[in-house]
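pls design
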């Protein structure tokens, strides 16, 4: 399946991340945590599909993607960054990326937080955020996607970890997890770059957890 959709609006989120709100085709539905492949509807880019997560809710009249652009090479995300309102994207079938299976611990690195945006928006709307906790790791505070939004939805249940800022550098390592996690039998949801997901998943397994993980970047 393939649908051509117009960009309704673009909003800057951080120095390299934007929200793209696009038309929602009739009958197009998804669950929080699901994704689709997106291409830019221009001659040389039509066949360059990349996976992106829906960050809005299914009930919204439009779709939203929240996309980090890699401006250091001429890929799809760099070209998305130059698009304007009215430009077109091609979206495809919806597929599961990561799904909510009950209250637990969410661990995200950078743009890996996008499936959790949709999941927490839904939980917040349904008044079910309680008993969930989010650990969101970034290089610096300038990289944090939707800081205010997560604070509003999660209150003191969101923890921001900064790995490259000032002299207060933190990492989600074994010691961090042992200090901050009270119950390793709850569900764990991890999403982020390859190395982070692999490292944290291995530690969690060692500590008795069964993490659900999604790799975003190699
Ligand atoms: C299920 C799923 C859902 C996703 N959802 C989102 C989302 O909601 N939001 C989001 O921002 N991302 C998301 N991603 C990640 C996103 O798909 C990638 O960032 C995107 O495909 C990169 O496309 P590109 O053409 O710009 O880069 P590509 O050229 O495809 O490169 C991919 C990666 O390789 C690196 N790379 C490759 N070539 C070079 C080069 N020459 N110089 C430097 N670096 C290079 C880049 O760092 C990049 O991470 C998701 C990934 C998956 C698997």
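designed seq:
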């Amino acid at each position: 399946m393939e649908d051509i959709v117009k960009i309704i609006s673009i909003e800057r989120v951080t120095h390299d991340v934007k929200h793209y709100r696009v038309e929602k085709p009739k009958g197009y539905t998804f669950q929080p945590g699901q994704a689709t492949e997106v291409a830019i509807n221009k001659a040389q880019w039509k066949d360059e599909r990349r996976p992106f997560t829906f960050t809005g809710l299914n009930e919204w009249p439009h779709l939203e993607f929240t996309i980090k652009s890699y401006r250091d090479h001429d890929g799809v995300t760099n070209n998305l960054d130059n698009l304007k309102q009215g430009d077109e994207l091609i979206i495809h079938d919806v597929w599961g990326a990561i799904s909510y299976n009950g209250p637990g611990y969410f661990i995200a690195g950078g743009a890996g937080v996008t499936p959790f945006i949709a999941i927490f928006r839904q939980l917040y709307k349904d008044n079910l955020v309680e008993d969930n906790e989010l650990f969101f790791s970034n290089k610096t505070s300038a990289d944090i996607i939707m800081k205010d939004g997560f604070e509003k939805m999660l209150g003191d249940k969101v923890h921001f970890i900064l790995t490259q800022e000032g002299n207060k550098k933190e990492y989600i390592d074994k010691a961090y997890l042992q200090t901050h996690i009270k119950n390793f039998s709850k569900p764990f949801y991890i999403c982020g770059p390859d190395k982070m997901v692999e490292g944290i998943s291995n530690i969690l397994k060692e500590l008795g957890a069964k993490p659900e993980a999604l790799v975003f970047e190699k």
